[in-house]
Amino acid sequence: MGACNSAAAAAPVSLDIYWDVENCGCARTAKGAAEMHARLMDFVTGAAGAGHSVVEATARGARTLSFYVPARSSAAPRPAALKALDTLGWRHVAVSPKPGAADLAIQRDVDAMLASATQPQLRRRVVVVVSGDSDFAACVVRCRAAGCVVLLAHGAASSETFRGLVPAARRVAWASLVNGDEADPSPPDAADAARDAAAPDAPDAAAPAPDAAAPDDAAAPAARTRRGRRRRRSASEPPLLLDGDSFFDARCGGRRPKAPPPDPDAPDPTYIFQ
């Protein structure tokens, strides 16, 4: 009986990975892409459970590794990384540059996979969604309802609701696979909640002290007077006003130019306008 259970546990499975490159970027170099692939496969092997022999499925070629890239997208992998992914067996799916085209392509392929497999096959299938877009929530729900083992490699901007669709042991931050960082041992939603709870009590480091001294005049920006002399302006100086008396009070220290003496030969303005 034990031998039968052991043989059933080691039965080959199918592995399907759907990677939205626009939401979860690729490593820049060929070496980085190869290391990212190795970390992803290690995560899948560990998170899928003892009853799913992902290694056996990989050896038999019963896997589909697809990454979806919109045309002319800045998120497209570099040529060296593309070549490495091709060598590792990834399928490059080029989609339209229209917004949401990659989402529709992935959903279409997931629907085709669910329709073509029998119920026993679906129960032995591991589906990995690599995206931070909550538009794939319906795909995750349908695959889990069909009996698939669903794993999630989520982006940094993914919502708690999207991450919560799969157990914490079956999801990982995509950045930790690309960069090789150790994943946070606590579930992402718990870590986010703890950080949000502590945020109101934390002092704002960017806010200045309430009784901070005004900046020295030597550090204040320079201002130019009407006579062209350059001098320093204090931060507490009043703004530039264009009415006569206030202008000279604010910018010339109260020094007003003397009025010219009257010209005896000048015509009488009263006579001119009569």
Question: What would you say this structure looks like, in words?
Answer:
The chain is of the alpha/beta class and 274 residues long. The chain has two domains: 2-181, Rossmann fold (3-Layer(aba) Sandwich), CATH 3.40.50; 215-256, no CATH class. Helix content is 38%, strand content 15%. It is built from twelve helices and eight strands. The chain has helices at 2-9, 30-47, 54-60, 79-87, 101-116, 119-123, 137-145, 160-163, 174-179, 188-198, 244-251, 269-272, and strands spanning 14-20, 63-70, 90-95, 125-130, 149-154, 171-173, 222-224, 230-232. Strands 3-2-1-4-5-6 form a six-stranded parallel sheet, with helices on both faces. A two-stranded antiparallel ribbon has the order 7-8. α2 crosses α4 (79-87). The longest helix has 18 residues, at 30-47. The chain is elongated and about 115 Å long.
Short synopsis of the structure:
With 274 residues, the protein is α/β, with parallel strands linked by helices.
Helix tally?
Answer: 12
CATH class of the largest domain: Alpha Beta
**Distance between termini?**
125 Å
Quickly give the structural class: alpha/beta
Question: Quaternary status of these chains?
Answer: single chain
CATH topology annotation of the largest domain: Rossmann fold
* Counted beta strands: 8
Order of helices and strands: HEHHEHEHHEHEHEHHEEHH
Give the total of domains. Answer: 2
Rg over C-alpha atoms, rounded to the nearest angstrom = 34 Å
What's the CATH H-level homologous superfamily of the largest domain? 5'-nuclease
Kindly state the mean pLDDT as a whole number?
74
Shape: elongated
Helix content: 25-40%
Low-confidence stretches: 1-10, 182-196, 198-223
The biggest beta sheet is recorded as: 6 strands, parallel
Tell me the CATH architecture of the largest domain: 3-Layer(aba) Sandwich
